[in-house]
Design goal:
Order of helices and strands: EEHEHEHEHEHEH
CATH class: Alpha Beta
CATH topology: Rossmann fold
Structural class: alpha/beta
Radius of gyration: 16 Å
CATH superfamily: HAD superfamily/HAD-like
Number of helices: 6
Number of domains: 1
Amino acid sequence: MFWGTIAWAGSIDQFTTACAPAFLILTNWAVILDRDGVINRNIDGGYVSAWDEFEFLPDSLDAIAELTRAGFKIIITSNQAGVSKGIYTEKRLSKITANMLDRIEQTGGKIYSVRYCLHKDEDNCICRKPKTGLFMQAIHNIAADLKNTFVVGDSERDIEAGKKIGCKTILVLSGKIKNKKEADNLKSKPDFIAKDLFKAVKSIVIN
């Protein structure tokens, strides 16, 4: 059974810009994963709007299980503007998430928290990546050491947001950005580049 939290980013009032309270000892190791293009196959120019469109990328389940065994708190954060655009509903997104988490747990992985931003760019929210509200909400109260927290994503939005809060960043070439030449043209440079989540996890565990 999933033991963390699932939350929708519905309004600015739901968010805090504070990190872990000062009295907490920063001992937790955390990894923040984007979803589409990192865990599951990204649909170019579209959205994963139903469970039958959700396809785990090769070895992504094994990668999450390895992170779990290594003691990391795993957080999934994802922009899901398809909801506010009317392409799919929150209920449909919840079903996709529940099925994803079931599969992850069946293969030995545990997800601490899932956080979605449902806004469009023009909504000017504080949570849609590359803004950091979604990340700050996700890590609030888990006592994560941000300097030793990894953000893994497939786009510049993920890398930029991760750098803004002082995390180590890994760009995977399994989603929106597909090769190192594209990665070299990014304004926000990742700390590491990996073929996919499995290779990224190997770097994380070693570090």
